[in-house]
Amino acid sequence: MPDDVVFEQDVQRDWPRLNEQYVRRGGVVLDLSVLASWRNELEEMNRGKRGRPFEYPRSFISLVMFMRDVWRLTYRAAEGVLRVLGSLFGFEAPDYTTIWRREVEEEIGGLIVTQSAGHVLAADATGLSITTRGEYLAHKYRVPRLFVKLHAAVDVETGMFVAATATSGRKGDAGRLPGLIEQASKRLDGRIVEVLADGAYDTRDNFDMLKRRGIVPVIRMRRNANMKRVGGTSARPLAVHERNLLGEAYWRYVKRYGRRWSVEGAFSALKRTLGESLRSRRDDLMLKEALRKVAAYNRLLLA
User: Fold this and answer.
1) Helix-then-strand count for the chain, H and E
2) Most buried in the list 65, 181, 197, 238, measured by CB within 10 Å?
């Protein structure tokens, strides 16, 4: 086969549906249905609680976190927005210190994902800056751009994140794949049929892990990869043999490796929608904020 085989896909967009989806996102951010269950939820939260009782239900704090992430509000700006809403709907707005404390205490809700018969996942990682310093300043003054690394798996069909974890910027990618697959398997009831990933995930351990789970690995291997079996299973040697027989270009065509770009597209959309920098300054809160961005993005997709 020729070496210039290219897999092309004609993408047809349903613009009326997409336009309506984008409009609905504004309503999702201001979903005040949580006010209807305010009293009942507070009674349940404070039952048997020692010390000062909660004054705001978890669903309300979750909504405030969602508003802050989507609109990129500071804590003080969030208090201002809540004051206006409180005057309209009859509740007392929390001050910015209360918002911060409750955000620190609250657990991040699980990712909302759609279900289907079989899922094809694409895995990758991206960086979220922990400063607002631009490229010019970083280059001119040779100041390194510090970042948090977001590792994630995306459903190729829906474009939704089905698993995510955040680490410091110096952590490698390959060792995070088993954890992502474990997360995704629990949310999708194990219905994963294929995993696509770039060369950063090309390790024998990852091939072996996917084989044990009955998942087809579509991982780009190094050009000089050998077929030696060093313990484990024969998953990677067989994959290397297949790639060598087909040739790199035709292997990519047969495996439809281009679908891996769905994770790149999801990262790009997340950064355009919710910003590519983190506002938190404490290490643990940076990681938490990165995962909140993923949950908020999924929530917007379902609007």
Assistant:
1) 12, 5
2) 197
Quote the distance between the C-alpha of residue 188 and its chain's center: 15
Q: Do the Cβ atoms of 116 and 191 come closer than 8 Å? A: yes
**pLDDT tens digits, residue range 9-51?**
566 778 888 888 888 888 889 889 999 999 999 999 999 988 8
Q: Strand order in 119-129's β-sheet?
A: 161-168, 147-155, 119-129, 192-197, 216-219
String of b and e for 52-73 (b: at least 16 CB within 10 Å)?
eebebbbbbbbbbbbbbbbeeb
What is the distance between the alpha carbons of residues 215 and 208, in angstroms, rounded to a whole number? 10
Which tens digits make up the pLDDT trace of 82-103? 999 999 999 999 999 999 999 9
Query: What SS3 state is found at 146?
Result: coil
- Token pair of 78 as six digits: 């969030």
Tokens of 12: 């047809």
**193 and 215 in contact (C-beta within 8 Å)?**
yes
pTM: 0.88
Give me Rg for the CA atoms of the chain. 22
What stretch of H or E contains 15? helix 15-29
Q: Tell me the two tokens of residue 238.
A: 């067989």
Give me the percent of the chain exceeding a pLDDT of 90.
68
Sign of the CA dihedral 289, 294, 295, 300? positive
The single residue listed with the structure tokens 């289907």 is 116
Spatial contact of 252 and 122, defined as CB atoms under 8 Å apart: no
**Cβ-based neighbour number of residue 185 at 10 Å:** 17
Please give the span between the terminal C-alpha atoms of the chain, in angstroms, as a whole number: 45
Residue 95 CB neighbour total at 10 angstroms = 14
Closest listed residue to residue 122, CA positions, set 279, 260, 287: 260
- Our measurement of the distance from residue 269's CA atom to the centroid of its chain's CA atoms, rounded to an integer in Å, reads 11
Q: Which amino acid, one-letter code, is at 185? A: S
